[in-house]
Amino acid sequence: MSINLDDYTRAEMMIIATARQVRDGESSIVGMGPPLLSAALAKYHHAPNMWYCTESGPLDWVPTSRELPAPIGIADHSLTQGSAMSGDMVDALGAFVNGGWAQSAVLQAAQIDRFGNLNTMLAGTFEDPIRRLPGTGGNADIGASVERVISTMPLETRRFKERADFRTTAGYIDGPGGRAEAGLAPQGPNKCATTMCLFGFDTEDGGTTGSCEMVLEQLFPGVSLEEVQTIIPWKLKVSQDLTYMDPPTEEELVLLRHLDDGGNHLIPGRY
Amino acid sequence: MMTAHEAVKRFVNDGDTVYSGFNIISFALTNEIIRQGKKGLKAVAGSVTPNVTMMSIDGNVNRIETGYLSGTLRSKPFQEMMRDGRVKWNDYTNMTITLRLMAGGLGMPFICANSFLGTDYLLEETMNHSRSLKEDRKREDGSIAPPYAVINSPFDGRKALLYPALKPDVAIVHCQRADEEGNVQVWGPQADTKWGLWSSKNVLVTAEEIVPRSVISTEPHFTIVPGFKVSAVIHEPWGSHPSGLNGYYRADREWAGLTGAGMTTWHEAREYLDEWVYGTKNHSDYITKYKDRFGEDLLDNLRVKDTMTPEQPARYGWR
């Protein structure tokens, strides 16, 4: 199959950038939506030995046939195919995640803030909501315990906040020392992959030192620093080593489009 | 063995707390609860699903404790009721609800988890917002118990969170198979199901297949609760339609669009319930109506055709 490598969408680049943060051999808890697609791409592409686990109980999904599209939900029946264990929430979020066995998590959220806290609860406030969202699912459980969080969401001003409207999932909370003060273990290096760029966080030891702020690490091809800064409502930290991320390879794009199966995940109009 | 009608009539009472979990949903029992006009129920589950939206429209359910509103917010009436307080709720997480059910099942008063440390769940305005379940948390002396509480561990002084046990009055669930004694067998991802069933006083189960005890006992590892824990077992093919059942049928993604079951407006909600719930006598009537209206193929295409057979079945023995 020959495809035009210049013809990809920003949503596709977001999924590819997210997938690139997933490491081969690591154990990962994968959340609803674009994360299921990103992690499936990673597993098919460069991380065949990643442990792909979801919170409702499937542990270590190893698809034996490459014909299937990516799982749609965290309890998708196709997660049974080739899986090592079909457990429950106590196994997955309890023992695997809170027991400290999950090295990374791939999560979506409605908002992220300057210190990497995620919001999946609401826009506005409880008493005067602009929009009520579904709630945390397992994100709060995961943010409390997992070593490294890879979050993914489109780069939009309503999603990037100095302080999230509601912090459902702890990142670095209010800055250095925040996690320790709250009673949580260190976390990182966390990443946030968007439709225009990749962010990291300014801390080398999981949240004790450094500013713990979001840092622009990589711009996607064709995106300028100014464009990103216009969307972010605070003065954005930029890495001294700011680079451009490589565009999608043919293999990544072909795999991604197969796994997305005509917009199962990247629903036209939504992303 | 009884019918869904008998089971709901006998075991679901107005004001009950009802566990209805998010992987294997009994729409057969959901519809029956609506038909019988049960009122003021509280729905609890790691995630609640569109069956809870359906039960909220006529006030069957007016309180919720959950970690995730899965698909329920597509309904504007549901959003409206959350806003004006006709539906009251407190937010938890998938795991903390499961652990609360586990605590209930194990007879413990509370359970510990660290999920809300460092988050806005700990703010007073979250725990006791104006539509929260303060009334349900009233202690005997009239004071309000918190929905969860931060403590310093008596063992090492570190911060920890306690969550109260959940003990629902009744659980409704669909399963792959059960026998007449009510031994419930489930496979595939189980989410919060096992503890939802162990913690509930009465367990009502619809089963895709009723099998003899001998089928159960050659594969007892699939039994998630034994028969003595189950109050009613009901044979109900397609009992979780429009949601799926691992190994039997996939979720019906056409359903909401075809029937208006997204209940996006009050008018649509009224029409859906009148036609598809009140307008059907029971679940097999509902399935017949669905086939008549949209064709046999629609359901047939949902059936799982490539099923796995064990390469080397589990081997039990004793001599």
What does the model show?
The complex is a heterodimer of chains A (271) and B (319). Chain A has helices spanning 10-20, 34-45, 89-98, 139-145, 178-182, 225-231, 250-260, and strands at 27-30, 51-53, 58-59, 85-86, 104-108, 111-113, 118-119, 122-124, 129-132, 148-152, 160-161, 191-193, 197-201, 214-219, 237-244. With 271 residues, chain A is of the alpha/beta class. In chain A, strands 2-1-5-10-12-13-14-15 form an eight-stranded mixed β-sheet, with helices on both faces. In chain A, strand 14, helix 6 (225-231) and strand 15 form a beta-alpha-beta unit. Chain A is globular and about 45 Å long. In chain A, 54% of the residues are buried. With 319 residues, chain B is α/β, with parallel strands linked by helices. Helices cover 31% and strands 18% of the residues of chain B. Chain B has helices spanning 4-11, 27-35, 50-57, 76-84, 94-106, 124-127, 193-199, 213-218, 255-259, 266-277, 283-294, 296-300; strands at residues 17-19, 41-45, 61-66, 88-91, 110-113, 149-152, 159-164, 170-178, 184-185, 202-210, 223-225, 232-235. In chain B, the strands form two sheets. In chain B, strands 1, 2, 3, 4, 8, 9, 10, 11 and 12 form a nine-stranded mixed β-sheet that branches. In chain B, helix 1 (4-11) crosses helix 2 (27-35), helix 2 packs parallel to helix 3 and helix 5 (94-106) packs parallel to helix 7 (193-199). The longest helix of chain B has 13 residues, at 94-106. Chain B is globular. The mean pLDDT of chain B is 96.
